Batch of 4 targets.
Target 1
Amino acid sequence: MASDIDRFAEEIIETDVLVIGGGLAGCPLAAKAAEHGLSVTLVEKSQTDRSGNAAMGINYYIVGANPQEGVTAQQLLEWWTNTYVRWTGGTQGRFTNPNIMYQQWDKGLWAMHELEKLGVPMKWFDGEYRYVLDPLRLGDLKVTLNVLWLNVKPILAKAIKERGVNLLERTMIVDLLTRDDRVVGATAVNTRNGKFVVIKAKATVLATGNFARIYNGDMAQSWKYKFHYHWNPATISGDGYAAAYRAGVELANMDLTGHGMIVDELAMGYGLLIRNDGIPGKCLNWRGEEVPSRYWQSMPKLLELEQKGLTPLYYTIEDVLPDDFQKRMEVYLNDMRLATFKLAEERGFNPKTHRYEVPPPMPYTFSLVTGINVGEEYQTSLKGVYAVGDNAAGLHGAYMAVPSGFLLAENLPSIVNNTVEPAIDDAQVESQKEMALAPLAVKDGTEPMELECAIRYICERYVGMLKSEGKLREGLRRLGSLRRVFLPRLMAENPHYLMRALEVRNLMDLAEVHINACLSRKETRGDYIRLDYPEIDSARDNMITIQRLKEGKPILETREVPDLKPEYIKEEA
Amino acid sequence: MPAKIDYRKCIGCKKCYDLCPIDVFSWDEQMNMPVVAYGEECWHCGICWMECPKRAIDITYPASFW
Amino acid sequence: MAVEQIADHVITTDVLVVGGGIAGCCAAAKAAEHGLDVTIIEKSKLERSGNAGMGINYYTVGAMPDEGLTPLEMVKRWTEGPMMGATLGKGRFTDPNPMYRRWERGLWAVNELEKLGISMRWFDGKYRFVADPFRLGQVRVTLSVLWQNVKPLMAAAVKKRGVNILERTMVVDLLTNKGRVVGATAVNTRVGGFIIIKAKATVIATGIFSRCYEGEQPISWKYKFRYHWCPATASGDGYAIAYRAGGELANLDITGCGFRHQDELTMGYGLLVLNDGILGKLLNWKGEEISSLAQQSASTYAEMEEAGLTPLYESIEHLPDDFHKRMEIYLKDMRLASLKLAEQRGFNPRKHRYQIMLNKPHQFGLVTGINTEEDYRGSLKGLYAVGDCAAGCHGCYMAVPSGLLVGDSIHSYVNGAGEPVIDEGQVENHKRAALAPLSVKDGTEPMELECAIRYICERYVGQFKSEGKLREGLRRLGSLRRVFLPRLMAKNPHYLMRCWEVRNIMDLAELHIQACLERKETRGNHIRLDYPDTDPARDNMITIQRLESGKPVLEIREVPDLKPEYAKE
């Protein structure tokens, strides 16, 4: 319909599929959807060639079920639920719907071949698939490939352009557009020229990745440079989570944070590579005594070690380096983390003689089971909007992002065909534009990073690793003050800073959701520690924490996680 | 936020520039007015605001001090 | 002389006072009264420099014969009182004899202050004693004072006595000759002139040291200079120059715990409550009252945190109307900025509480500083230290008498001292090192390096220390020193000041960590996770650090007892 939007929107786009976020989930999805003949628009805050977690490269990829190698989806699911989640902060048990993951593992090989069709290499230098030994504690399952993915993003970017995806880069989402209980698109702003964009879409897919910025990174804190979160680009301000939440979509498990794994930048390069190459490094306490992994992979155990005066912990590969390791290292570092290699050289780091520190326990990013709550078709609790990759609860990691993107793309044609033309609510667009652009008019206001640091301080100090009710309440109270007083004062002298102001708005919303979730979880479970509730509450077993806005009011409920479907279990027999 | 100067009220008496313990100001000879030169060093002690005879300087506490 | 060619300015004086705070001004004024030529160098401006820049509202006099309060009693109550006990733990850490003499001359010091033009009286013209802010027992010994303008008054007094004042001038290093301190080099932080001061005696009065830790308040992105009443000028310049010249520093292992301050509001309201002797109520987050603040320590706070009872709050909601009125007077007199913030935040002490206490070290003081022998002599000839920068001489009520006592007696040293002889080579070294950051391009900004140092202290030292962390901290600090100190850059003399401050902070952070490594025990707020018991071998011992032939040396020395004639009183 010829609408009034034309008056103040500077660009209106109509598309079948709107993909928000051009990372490892968004790009495969966009490419596939375009192949199916749909019109696809992809909105990306940075530049697709080098955006997201994979921007600097990745060096491993868990394929999925592989009958030839005797790997089943069931085995992988068990590994993920019983080992990996526990290892990275959760505890045994389910926090998200296992069927989604099952189906992804099941179609893993297919997804891998689809990637290859997009031009992404899955083979080693020698032209063969190269399996690594057990970097993620998968036992002897032959399932994880070493991949040379320094340029995976440029390849994917090229693939989507070749398939006619309409790419809007340096464009940040403002909010989702809704009408009649349905998402009909989104508004966005160009972070270089400030152009306000309205996108009408039959299906909107959120793929903005992980979320971290309400805590400081776990690395040494710089004065000025506040955007270091290891491989996570600083773009991970939870834009997808926040836009979804504000539109009324359910978020899951916002109480659970992943703890910091890496205190030293060197660990990023070397540590990660060692792990991913399956080399069994050793963890030592400061006296040089070996510490078994079950100790340093659990927060409570780490805290115990700290209390006993045995920290810091160090990781070493000094005595286990095979001869060719140094060469392989260099290959990796040149392939995946050039910057780390450079730092190592500057610091004179030699993995044959030096160790790097394993971090103290602290939250800095959110857990593998946190995100937008999705069902088996990647649908969220609101019609018209979907979530894939790190944006979706329980679908974290490159090897989850890719299949989720492809699988949803397979369903998009029928979704789009069964969706009527979206109708936009003009008033909603107008109000989103006004809110979004307001910081440009503020003089002598607050710089976004100043407010962001204030939010981070609240989370560090009043939430943190060792939670308790009084602190959480105080944190919520202070956050409320900041919202009331400083959010309206956010100022942006240009569209770049407007992006930062919009990010901070997202952080503020999500920090509040996070603290509310923590207040509600009155137990200690795995790495989630409540000083005032030191026991596990079995009523929380296999429960997912759900939060959403209902008529503008935040509500929280816990819901039982679905069981694995009988047909999936039967497979094992 | 560091000291904010209302140049309409400022009479160029130099008190803020003279007295700041942290040396946040520089002096613009041409305009005969103070300039916040090292704003990030302001520690919000309020001495400039206290001493200004015309209340031409204001300090507001930034988000992180709340 | 060749030094004239190296320097932009050469000054010859009898007494050089480094730091123009309360202690420094008292020392300078008194020394000038004895006819000596005195020069003060001050990093900021005398009128508003130092801890007293914004005002103070209390002053503990000392021995009060009319009240039956003897110097011995004062020493006992001060050192054995619950506040010191909670913070420091058992025993003596510094020589109690100078403290005895300060308390003994307390009334004299008050008299001298009044002669300097500083009023000690309340609005009604009378002396107004407060009830027991330091938990000394029910004695009339601490005055409420209206000292918003104590510094401008002291500055006027000092100028009136003909003291030569060099403001916006920061000391670079002490000049020494054959083990004697013969002056200092300095730079004007606005125009950059390099200055040599030749002095027969040098009195260091630079105040406390805090900047190797973050402040106790919420940490800002940009604004890194917030330490409550401690001006950010507290970069330990005096400690560091004394150390580099070969002087002794004491008790750099012992930090003050930020036990009172979490909220900026605590500064205004909380402090005044404390100093007015009014007892606010200390509450846990559930609103249950807990025992007084004076009895809280890092350990008790940690226990409450473990039990999920934090944050803690102080409430003065229950206090009578006239108290709140007095509050407003105080806040207008002493901490206008706090009152402003309270207004901005809508804080109403009749209805609201402010958060209190955070378990982290944030400053040195109390028993840390330059180690002085009798009469405030540092361990080098010609060197003296007074006020907060002298170990065991902490607080305005110690700054004043120590400054006055030195000022009053230093003429005997000066009159017998030979002309200071300056080593040109030393001056050239100072100048080269001092001005180097001006020629560094694309280097490191001082605050970036400072934050890296602070992070090390927060993370690897902190409140709950242990050997592994301390060692790692020392190692990382060493890396920073090796790589980044030479890269410090300054685009003008103001930033040059920041570079030297960072150099001082780096030196002191290293000493701090080494001292903590040595103290293998838990005592007061010094908590070692790996040594949870108190080591009796450390009772009444002082930690001393100094450079010997360029190498750092640490020794633990017995603290003298009170002299028999004092003890038997």
Target 2
Amino acid sequence: MATAYRDPTADESESGTWSGASAGTRYTLVDDYPDASGADYLTHGTTAGYLNLFPPSLFSLGSGATSISIQVLYYDQKTASQACAIAGRLKVGGGYYNAATHNPANGVWTSRTDNWATNPKSGVAWTPDDVNGVGANALQGMGFYSSDASPTIRLASIRLQVTYTPGVYTLTADAGSFSFAGVAAALLSMRRLDVGAASFAFTGSDVGLRRLFTLAAQPGAFSFAGAAAALLANRRVNVQPANFPLTGATAALLAKRLLAVDPASFSFTGADVTLTYTGGGGPPPAPPRAGRKHRALKRVRYLAGRL
Amino acid sequence: MAAFNKFQDFIEQLGKGVHHLHAAGDTLKVFLTNEQPLATDTQKSDMVEISAGNGYTAGGEDSQNDYTESGGTGTMTAVDITWTASGGTIGPFRFAVLYNDSATSPADALVGWWDYNSNLTLQDGEQFKWDVGTSVLTIGP
């Protein structure tokens, strides 16, 4: 719990009999709380009444203050043994609200505390605005009230106090969240493709080796040139045995490659060749048949051996 | 629950290695201001901090930050901070701002802020609490 207080700095109004200072300055004798020994004091009576006093300002509780109560603190005594009755009071929202009166001690300065746990005007708990002097139920001042001021009553001091639980303000901080999104990587290029000799396939266009053949004079040794091949780009084709050049089309593998074609792996279609003998006189002589003579001699020798 | 608002520059400085959010790295502090932070602010001096005194220390308070990673998500944690007005008032203020007190370029690089949504002046004895949950920020997928 926390407390704050205000001492009076001005008179507001009064009734009954008051002495010790002139009207309008009576607060000066009771603004030194606690003054428990009564260094200076007001004397009230024998006509009962009230004295209303102003504080310099009201309180400035934060809006989060709770459990608020108001007290009027003062020191009093009476000057004779007969009973009398006095209490503290509040001014709230233009009205005056007295605490329950008590009979002061005779000749002994006694500390008094009158407490208002709720706002006497609104009838509900004090709000920060109430004690800060805001609104229709605002606290406005403090004072004394007597219903019996004979014998006279002495008042050494008075203080307006607020007791409260200070506000606790909480900023509940939500967490920030950061996420990262990567973009799709184009893993479609800049790669090295190691292809085994027999493991990749490609499509070549048909090879049209259709013309421009030259028949060589020696059988089997002729050479020819092929037409443009379907493997049109950036390739080297080693073709055995004729070693003819050709041009490839754009390959499906999109990159420069070395295509080594085994002699047996490349096929083409050559045109039929008509071999025409143009020697003189008649048909060409039949090739010698040395084998028949040899076999006849061998037969004769066999039979001679049998005989 | 007050939402976390990031300073745009935090993202830049995070990528440039200015922020070291783990406990052994940088000291991240929280200060109070009544000036509306802008997402484009970059350093603490871009705002006016409340006056020091009555329980408030210039520069704010250490959040005791730490940073861990789990399952691909990084989490920065901190502890609650409470200011108590003593001998007078603190404020007025409205915003709590998290910044990197260790950063030198930019100096006191900003991270993020939270809005209390109303101006507040702490009276003597009153408290203001920056209450964080299990994390202050997460960086993840």
Target 3
Amino acid sequence: MQQSREKLKSDIVEFVDQYVNDNDVVVGVLRYGSHIPHVYQKTCLERGRKPRNIQLVLSHMLTFFPPEFFPDRDFLILDDTVYEGVVMGEKLSQIRGLGASPNRVRSAVLVAHELSEFEVECPKPLVRLPDAEYIAWKEELAFVVRQDIRPTERDHPLYYFRGENLELGQLLSIIENYGKLHPVGSDWNAPVFRASLTIDSSILWDVAELDGIELDKIAKIRLYWQSVESGYQMTLAPIVFAAVEIPRFVEKSSQRLATLLGLPDTFFASMYESRPPEMIFYFVSRCIAALLLHRFLLQIGPRLQMSDRSLTMIAPEVVDGHVNYIFPAEYVQFYRVVTDQITKILASTAQTSMLPLGDAWKLPECSLIEREPGRLLPDVYRILEFMTRQGDPAVWDGKRWLPRKTVNGVSFQEIVGHFGDVCFVSAALDELLDCGLIRARDYQRNRTSGTYMVREFLSGGEYKALQVSRIADTWRFEAPAVNPTLREAEALDLWGSD
Amino acid sequence: MTFGDLTDQEKLLLEQRTSAFFNLAGVRAQEVLGASDTGLSTKKIYKILANAIQDWTWLSFRGHDRKEFKFRGIGGLTWIPHRFGALGLVRPHIQYTVTFHYGLFPNIIDLVAADEYAKYGCVSKEESGTRRIVFPSYLTYEVLRKLPVEGNEQHFWSKLVEVYARLDGDSLDAMASCRTRTTAAHSLWIQFVHWKREMGIALDRLREDDSVLMDQKTKESIRKKVESARACMHSITAKMGFRQNLGQYVERVKSAAANTELSNYLPCLDELDPPKTPILDFDKFVRLYPYLAAMSEICEEYLKQTDILPATTSADLGVIEQRLRELGRFGSIKRTLIDPRRWFTLLRPPKDKNKEIARLCLELITELFRAFEQELILPIARPTEHYSDFLARHYPLPVDHFLPGF
């Protein structure tokens, strides 16, 4: 295992050295393509060599850039693998449609599925792997990515911190006062500890009152913790679940939300003129999430100070090193405002008399999901069955199982509507996202009052679609009742007692 | 053999593969035996699996020159030496909701009723006093392609199952338990473990309460323990016989595999290099068996004069003396425990000395097994501990040569 992991990392270094040119703007295709430059950089540093600088754009932000961004640049659309080529095809046509010169756009992947007919420019020749090896390769990459301080999902702004004198357990004990804590993933020995704090969104009561925004009952902050030589490093990714009717929001509440965060009043309105709705939704939901983070830090900052434990923000450039992100101007402005505020919050001196109390926070109301007899799979997988009720994510073409090209997603609210327990749903979604069985996307939907945008969850793609389909099959199966006499007889005759 | 370090996803995939291999085996065996209506007895399934697991593991190890023999692991299907002979059992990876035997193995009846296994269509039933599992008559191509088992794996697994499904009960048992010196030694070791446990529990109960005053239920449970201990003795002689006549069973496998792709390979009689596992000496077990037989007979003589067995008679002092003398030849047994006079004073009236004899029997058993442990350089622990140790340190099949992935 270790050997193949090192080989994979070597392959990535070799690939970047050979195919990424200095003037390329690398479009990192979410999820894993966007991690390749970081894996490259980390591997180079581990092996004592200086990595090259890479300019990186996250693929979900392509449409956020103005038209003048695209001509006169060389783009390299970078993904980890190509299975059928659906995503790569979409990205290529998207960037060309946005104004990139077709002869200055190249596609690149590390490996392809043996049945993929999709042709990429780099590398030549392309390594094609049979199904089992392809899956093993992807799982290895997923493992390597999970070692990173960044979440696998890359469409949430990340806030980096470092500090001293604080053990992980102490931090978790403090933050548990503000929500329901769920460790994520089962690889406890990974260098990065992943957890998620499910928070009752009533702390965002003022946002919930805004016209055009429907805020779900809970929000969350994902946490990625790593112990470093000088103390610890931590990444926080705040997330809210909201449905936003863009025109209504822009007209009635955009100014108020911008003010709440400290952005110019016209921040959303000016975007509305010329940018796609997904961009506005992105900033609305991420602004609300940033507000959540501010309020959370306002609570825990003083508590840390009181016990002489430090927490300071680090600029992303410090963490990103030789990977130079290119963000749209709006993102840069948004991020600067948010981080300035965080820096202020963390720098303010705590007054004992004014120390915020965790008790004032309403904790999410969790209940227990009842286990059905005859079920072997952990309950988190029940979500997959629900998620795929509208259509199996894998389709049988008479020869083999393929991932369905268009899959419907379900919103957080819809999942909670079915299962009832927000904590269970929140934890299960984190778990399933972490292992790649599901994906999340910002998606436009229609209803009688007009279109709105929402965060949706849907089955993982490629071979994960088949795995989701298998699991959903299992959950759909009505487990038969066991004849107790038969069971007892088998136990007695065959096993006796210990 | 530890699954502790796997991620939840990896564990789930292993479980899915286990279920797939289990169902593929059941469907194929049922087809070969024309038993779609009646299904297969649980014993038959266990035995077929125990054999197929061994060959599967070695085939992919040996056939390094043949790409089609490059397999991934076999999920949680595990070769287990058992008091009923070696079995192919499922070791779970995900958190099962069913009860485990020895903390490790789920009851097959529970297993086939659980969604991940039952979704392929297998059900348990009872017919003429035999517990049977009825598998679906076939799996559709669509379902087969959905299994997390590669085409070559499905093909060769079915072939293996087919070969073993054709064998008679003794051949299946002999090949499952005794095809190599190591597996044969394991098969005897587990009998030593069980005999000590079963007879130990029975004697412990008799040491505590007077059998005359016991209720029927307690007597019945002690009787079952004694019967189990007897079955262990019977099994040891059967296994030694299998090993002695292995050639004929090997020929039967070869004959069943003739005219198949696997004819040049089956049965796999390979063994791990000795340095890879602690040495397990079959000959030593065979050499020690007479001492266990002597101990067993002493216990049987004592039991005759309890109210546990149907025909209550007196213990034969001549037999006891002879057996004690035999034990005396096993150098390290304390003389005070095997002095016949001590036994004789307790074995004759009044009957109320029965509790003391039970205590003496237990002491002698403890002493004897301590000597066995020294001789064998192996522990003879309770079954649960034994299996943990077996899986962690003594598993006799290679497990680290499979293709990566689940």
Target 4
Amino acid sequence: MSLPSDAELIGRSLNEPEAFGLIYDRHAATVLRFLGRRVGAEVAEGLVGEVFRIAFERRKTFDASRVTALPWLYGIGSNLLLKHRRAEARRLRANARMAAAGEAPDKRAGAAALDARLLFPRVADAIDALPDGEREALLLFAWEDLSYQSVAEALELPIGTVRSRLNRARAQLRELLEPGGKKRVRSR
Amino acid sequence: MKPVDLARKLRREAAFEPAALNRGKAVLMAAIRREAEPKRRPTIVPQVPYQDISAALSFLERAFGFREIPTARFVSADGVLLHATMEFGNSLIGVGGQGHHGAISPMSGGVESQFISVQVDDVDAHYQRAVAAGARIANELRDHSWGERTYWALDIEGHRWRFGQPIREVPQSGRRRRPGEH
């Protein structure tokens, strides 16, 4: 016998609320890691229960034609993250420093390592400066490896809008890579 | 390097405490329990008889802020309202006719054999509302030595209601009723 799908479980939970506990067991670790990448362990640990509490309270609105609830849960998480922009910006800059340090022992020329040390903080600034909707689409795609379709489900957007947001975000980052591109990125 | 790969370079895993997922689940399960619990209903429900149920419902709402539960009405086959239920805070009262169960309205009997005591959040505001709706005030607003502020009102058929709000903590040992307090 196969396991019930997320949609079946959520449907069942309308009459048997306890069934929603299984949705947590299936997806909480993924959602926690997602939140942790964005705002760090401490804030993420406080948010993961909230994501599922909100999902539980909105479960009537879950689109039962979706087999997995994960994009929906990502979307609720993304919304909550907007209230933690400062923690997110802090972590992004810390990640940039660590990524730059990680590049240092590169076998190639020291110049490349130096470039990385200069480049990554600017990437962090550029990501941080993206409009909320573009940053969210970019990070769901790049960090969470969601498909365009899943990003669209998470952000409740048409897939075309996701594509254009990702293109705008890419264009911002490409400028940092091109020689003679933007020398300075708006920083906060 | 592609722009998206550049963004991927900044991806870093967070290090969680082992119990992090348990705490999150506790938050969810508390929400589930809150919903799964049947709505608490009071154990004792006073039944208050009136000659005119509809007029009573309207008065009790206007004067005292009680709310009828529309799904709880009993109506006879020929459409006469026999009984209704009103809620206030976490309590209920039944509003019914008189006669068949032996209870009668003070308007018919000329006496009240009991009164109903109700706790409110803001007794002064409640008093104003009751007066504006035409309630007769039996005892004016006053503070009591046991730490409560109250007033008493009579409804349209003469049932007696006492409304009170705690205004300060008074230890049990200090609670002595003084003359004139009620």
